Amino acid sequence: MEITSKLLGKAVDEVSQLPGIGKRTALRLVLHLLRQPKARTEKLAEALTSLRSGICRCRECHNISDSERCEICASPKRDRSLICVVEDIRDIMAIESTGHYRGLYHVLGGKISPMEGIGPQDLQIASLVERVRDGGVRELILALSATMEGDTTNFYLYKQLEGVEVELSTIARGIPVGDDLEYADEVTLGRSILQRIPFEGSFKGQDR
Amino acid sequence: MEITSKLLGKAVDEVSQLPGIGKRTALRLVLHLLRQPKARTEKLAEALTSLRSGICRCRECHNISDSERCEICASPKRDRSLICVVEDIRDIMAIESTGHYRGLYHVLGGKISPMEGIGPQDLQIASLVERVRDGGVRELILALSATMEGDTTNFYLYKQLEGVEVELSTIARGIPVGDDLEYADEVTLGRSILQRIPFEGSFKGQDR
């Protein structure tokens, strides 16, 4: 594709630097904007600029937030004795949309991965340990990915919190609701048998 | 997905109004921007804004252009007696990247489609007829889609140009280079037989 317009070329270049967007898609998106009223593009550009300049991290849980303290941390309705540890703010959104959790969060910003050169010092681990040490936290729910890196991070957190009085739990691993047993992988199926729960408990699913 | 940050929510809303981009993808793109240096977002926003404010349509061929007259129309190397009629500026880019065309273009801005409510007056047909009437044009190559709407538009143009001295041609329809005959659809295969060309001609493919 030859783009003769410099303005168009530059816009396509910038858009195609977004992840998963190639030159062709970028061109399609930019041409779409050109067909729309000018205000459309201005609103988009304005939303991105003000997002980037206005947004900050919650000083308590590191969730992204419009103010110093995020809505969840600031809410009086939340159970402050419960902290769910997640990798990314997208995990917060996912858990929030279940409607089954009423505690606080702590965003690590990733997981320990020697392969990618991410060590404990690159994550919000020290501030988590501090939060727990400050007291008032009854339980820490580790909700990291069910991968080797997730397990490594879980274990590192466990070691860091040795001697601190707090209950540690991890979210349940098992067969997804609605899935056929025959399509489940062996590891998941194996864990779901080893970590089976009393039959009566399976009905409850009490909100925390 | 619950987005508690208003700034983030607004940015995701704006991005997800782009075609083919849903809420989830928009969120992924916006979070990517948040992880990048601030200048990245500013450059993207700036490129989009200056594109929208700076770009215009070439007054001759209606190609998008940074100036009143596009690079192709302004080039002294182009054969001004040849005009290729296309629907969209993307078709110009596609034809330009073949490197086999040295004439000018005319962008209609679509094709006649009663179903979508697009009539001849919505397209740059009058200005094309004017360009041809002004003289100096030897041949008009119709390079519209091989659809019913494309054929309708071709026929309309043909009727509009009755009595005007200009050669009309359409781009060749046939089996794509590299394709197996058995996978070609019947209409294309039928046309490729009816509109067969002399064997010697098939080697030439002379640039126009």
TrEMBL record, chains A, B:
- Gene name of the record: recR
Q: Which UniProt keywords apply?
A: DNA damage, DNA recombination, DNA repair, Metal-binding, Zinc, Zinc-finger
NCBIfam families hit by this protein: recR
Which ranges form a coiled coil?
A: none
Domain annotation Toprim: ranges = 81-176
The entry's function note states: May play a role in DNA repair. It seems to be involved in an RecBC-independent recombinational process of DNA repair. It may act with RecF and RecO.
Q: Which InterPro entries match?
A: DNA_Rcmb_RecR, Rcmb_RecR, Rcmb_RecR_Znf, TOPRIM_dom, TOPRIM_RecR
Protein name, UniProt field = Recombination protein RecR
Tagged with keyword Metal-binding: yes
Similarity annotation: Belongs to the RecR family.
What biological-process terms (Gene Ontology) are attached? DNA recombination; DNA repair
UniProt KW Zinc keyword: yes
Q: Which PROSITE patterns match?
A: RECR, TOPRIM
Q: Where are the zinc fingers (C4-type)?
A: 58-73
Molecular function per GO: DNA binding; zinc ion binding
Database matches in HAMAP family: RecR
